[in-house]
Amino acid sequence: MSGSKDGKHQKILEAAIDVISEKGLDNTSISDIVKKAGVAQGTFYLYFSSKKALIPAIAENLLGITLERIKEKTQTKEKLWDVLEVVIDETFHITKTYKDVIVFCYSGLAIEHSMEKWEAIYQPYYEWLEELLEQAKRNNEIAADIHVKWTARIIINMVENASERFYIGMEQDDTLDGFKKEIFSFLKRALLKP
Amino acid sequence: MSGSKDGKHQKILEAAIDVISEKGLDNTSISDIVKKAGVAQGTFYLYFSSKKALIPAIAENLLGITLERIKEKTQTKEKLWDVLEVVIDETFHITKTYKDVIVFCYSGLAIEHSMEKWEAIYQPYYEWLEELLEQAKRNNEIAADIHVKWTARIIINMVENASERFYIGMEQDDTLDGFKKEIFSFLKRALLKP
Amino acid sequence: MSGSKDGKHQKILEAAIDVISEKGLDNTSISDIVKKAGVAQGTFYLYFSSKKALIPAIAENLLGITLERIKEKTQTKEKLWDVLEVVIDETFHITKTYKDVIVFCYSGLAIEHSMEKWEAIYQPYYEWLEELLEQAKRNNEIAADIHVKWTARIIINMVENASERFYIGMEQDDTLDGFKKEIFSFLKRALLKP
Amino acid sequence: MSGSKDGKHQKILEAAIDVISEKGLDNTSISDIVKKAGVAQGTFYLYFSSKKALIPAIAENLLGITLERIKEKTQTKEKLWDVLEVVIDETFHITKTYKDVIVFCYSGLAIEHSMEKWEAIYQPYYEWLEELLEQAKRNNEIAADIHVKWTARIIINMVENASERFYIGMEQDDTLDGFKKEIFSFLKRALLKP
DNA sequence: AATGAATGAGCTTTCATTCAT
DNA sequence: AATGAATGAAAGCTCATTCAT
């Protein structure tokens, strides 16, 4: 198909996400990945220069999915608050599904000092939210003295981090809705024009 | 007591922090650590059951230092806002100093599915802030409908996460004060009784 | 004919010599060679049955060039001593240009226990010198008790080996002439009718 | 015993020489060597930093043995010619025993561009022969215009090279004495005061 | 004849851990 | 308690070779 990335590349990527989700990065060998992907050991290196090269590829893939979903679900939303609710929902959803991979991506990128890549990957996400905040500012939805660039980052990171802590910290699932609501209120108060 | 902990235990811990700060966890071998600590290879295993056992020990150590410093500097502070400023300052400070170790602790704990330990380690920090929030609530400093337990976690994690992103993302150092102020304003608005 | 050999065959051979000169045999992959030669991976195997099959081919090629040049330059020489000077000059010249390849050919052939090939390759060179020595004997230029077959080999190998050591051992280039002269004198004394 | 090198180091070295003699360097894995030596895989790396580090160690070992034997057998010899006969005999002997290892050492060192090491290893051998040639010069045994330093190298290399070619080229063994005699005559004529 | 993606065996090397001293 | 030589499993990666196109 048109949009579909090269078959083997995508297969390996997905296998990697799967296996790492299960076993963690350190316990995942290339051998595990290729076995799952159904390709030969050497084939991995035709598509990724090394094991480390997986990390940004996975991160990009996951964030791409997330952002796509968020954009799709917010197309009809007019109010910033509705958008934020979607952001929270989707972030929690993707975090639940891929919690291990997300943590390993974050730490993997951080550890390898390739944080610029991380920033580059998040750029479109940040920009999308910055744009929304600008709009909300113009509409007098949010306080005028908010620094849009920083606030966009604060919000995105905060929601992401909170969801990671929630799922990775094995919080009881029945507290989920309360927690999400609290985050929403927190954000709303933090942004709202007094 | 102050210098209480057994000399070798502490030596190894500090050496580990040092070496991991420099080289990252994956590139740090027990051999590196013991060399730096000036003890024999086998000695490591007299104090830590395995390499993985280092991670919570280091995390506890670092958070202990942070919390101690924060408590010390906030003893005289009466207003929640002053306390929060100290929290932000100290978090950024400790993150700057130990950024690599912090990331690796976080991911290390997460990856090994030993997140309960993480929660246990943070417990005193959370409790301390919960207590402060309760007080502030009673004093009508902050909104009455705030869920203290969750909010404590949200704040601590948010500040920590923001500082990590700041330093690891290699943001220009001259934006530091602006960024910290923005975080403070963000938090203040989020908590303030409207 | 001159450029006779099939284009691709020759291209691969030359690429191989080039790359191996630069990187050494062990660090040279078929992939490197075909890239340099501008042909596909599989094409290599249309012309050479294996990587090892390169070695005698390269050796033959190089010795062929050397011998051709020597014969050309000695056509007009009548005295054995003049011929020997050319042999020394040309051997040093070719060794300088292809030192790494020469060593690897020698060792490569030796290691693979295909030394018969080596002998076969050198056969024309040996025979050519044997013939000259016979002549010189008949002309009373050299001692009568010299064993022509062995001496031919001794001379050729000695000059070759000396030049290898010279260039590979990174001797100062300004000692070159002195060294060549010493070899010449050595040989002359060794052969000269007393 | 006293002079005996550290047990494991020597064991590994000897095993390496053995296995490489049989299979050649490229076909010899560390695994083969340690199996033969009766030590663990990792133990190899306690004594040699890498596979390549074996080469100079082996070369030194072999040349050490050779030189020791030559010195021993020439203690009572007064005439240079007698010494040269021993040199020829011993060189052929050691070459016969270790032909494959010798070739791989030579090429290995050459290939790795560590020819300085080669020179360093040969230094004592060269010096020993230089001294003898000086003496012979003073005694009017050999021509006065001989350049001692170069000639020592020419002789040693020539004899070595000839013996390699002889054994590696699988010459008939019954020609051995004739060939050695021819080398001796060749050398004698090359050196003798006319 | 020519291609080059795919293969997978096999290598070197690392390093957490053990244990005799 | 302390040592550090020895272990050996396990991993990442390479690359000669094949084969469907």
Give the DSSP E fraction of chain A (strand runs of 2 or more residues): under 5%
Q: Which CATH class of the largest domain in chain A applies here?
A: Mainly Alpha
Which fold name corresponds to the CATH topology of the largest domain in chain A? Tetracycline Repressor, domain 2
Question: Largest sheet of chain A, if any?
Answer: none
How many beta-strand elements of chain A?
0
Architecture of the largest domain in chain A in CATH?
Answer: Orthogonal Bundle
Computed Rg of chain A: 18 Å
Name the CATH superfamily classification of the largest domain in chain A. Answer: Tetracycline Repressor, domain 2
Note poorly predicted spans of chain A.
none
How many distinct helices of chain A? 8
How far is the N terminus from the C terminus of chain A? 51 Å
Structural class estimated from helices and strands of chain A: mainly alpha
Domain count of chain A: the total is: 2
| Greatest contact between two chains | A-B, 44 and 46 residues
H/E topology pattern of chain A: HHHHHHHH
InterPro entries (chains A, B, C, D): DNA-bd_HTH_TetR-type_CS, Homeodomain-like_sf, HTH-type_Tx_Regulator, HTH_TetR, Tet_transcr_reg_TetR-rel_C_sf, YvdT_C
Protein name (chains A, B, C, D): TetR/AcrR family transcriptional regulator
GO molecular function (chains A, B, C, D): DNA binding
Domain HTH tetR-type (chains A, B, C, D): 6-66
